[in-house]
Amino acid sequence: MNRFCTLFDASHLTRGLALHQSLVETREEFLLLIYCFDDEAYDILEKMRLPSVRLVRLRDFETTALLGIKSGRTRAEYCWTCTPWVIRDALDRFDLPEVTYIDADLYFFSGPSVLLAEFHASEASVLITEHRYTPEYDQSKTSGIYCVQFVTFIRNDRGLAILEWWGTRCIEWCFARFEDGKFGDQKYLDDWTTRFAGDVHVLEHVGGGVAPWNVQQYEVTEGPRVNGVPVVFYHFHALKWWSTGHIDPSGGWYRITRATRDLIYRPYARALERALERVRALSPGFRLGLFERESGWRGFKKRLQRRMEGNYPVIPART
Predict the structure, then answer these.
(1) How far apart are CA 166 and CA 146, in angstroms?
(2) 82 lies in some domain
(3) What is the pLDDT of residues 215-237, one digit of tens each?
(4) Span 297-306, mean pLDDT?
(5) DSSP reduced 3-state for 97
């Protein structure tokens, strides 16, 4: 069984539902532990009774140490701070031999077992994934070499020691700015392959961790595949879902080709639409996670300019 944990509040509820459904559709056995960072997310998910899911309320997870720093951090910074502690709580609360933390805005196009098999073959205790930036978007110096999007910890002495080190650092400092070689929870991972030599494996499978900051370097074909390799998961970072039903893949930050739009973003757009319908069946009028689209001539000009640059926004197919 693949064991995962994730965290999100109601603003990412539809993304979390799309993530869960994508795991279901891989037809691999899994357990998904969802740490609900507000009561609205918990209450809606509890009514849904999703298969292979266990829910944890925020108040049942928060420790004295986390509560002590909470008021000094933004909502995003607090979520980043909590990531290693969610992993530790998942291992302990559910007595798991290992767990993989996954971001709520991931979507699986094929089964993740191939990634975990590579990790297990390495005999390491921790798995991390690189950003693999396209050169024009390389932010390694400020945002980190590695991305906290899919990280696995085995419950052994070395895995727990690394997790404890990371969690302590995040309590000490975890902010959305680059400062003294740190950024959020992420830059801490930069030296793990040397600091914890032999205990950390860097994922090699190119289909794990395809994202808007690296997809430009690949040929995207049916499957979807990148350079002929099946995409295992795509990280839909920076995606904006407008209240009009349109989806902007990256808010203009990254260049998205027509093939990437049609083969990767359109299926995700349909998954988000289905997720929103499920939520609204329980909570009519639910709008969290939707943005108001810039209208008028200025908005049209921006969209036209990006289209001319070969950057294609998405219009999701209704379901």
Answers:
(1) 14
(2) yes
(3) 999 999 999 999 999 999 999 99
(4) 57
(5) coil
DSSP 102-123: E-TTEEESS-THHHHHHHHHHT
**What is this structure's pTM?**
0.93
How many domains are contained in the chain? 1
72 domain residue, yes or no: yes
Six token digits for residue 100: 């993989």
Residue 203, domain extent = 2-308
Q: How many residues does the chain have?
A: 319
Residue 76 domain-assigned (yes or no):
yes
107, amino acid identity: Y
Name the burial class of residue 121, with classes exposed (0-12), middle (13-18) and buried (19+) by CB atoms within 10 angstroms of its CB.
exposed
Helix locations, 49-133, DSSP H: 58-61, 64-70, 75-93, 113-122
Both tokens assigned to 3: 């064991």
- CA distances (Å), origin 16, targets 25, 109, 168, 170: 14, 15, 27, 24
CB atoms within 10 A of CB 55: 18
Contact 223, 109 (CB under 8 A): yes
CATH (domain of 192): 3.90.550.10
Q: What b/e string do you get for 21-31 counting C-beta neighbours within 10 Å, with b at 16 or more? A: bbbeebebebb
> What tokens were used for 193?
């392959």
319 domain-assigned: no
Q: What tens digit of pLDDT does each residue of 81-140 get?
A: 999 999 999 999 999 999 999 999 999 999 999 999 999 999 999 999 999 999 999 999
> Which amino acid, one-letter code, is at 45?
L
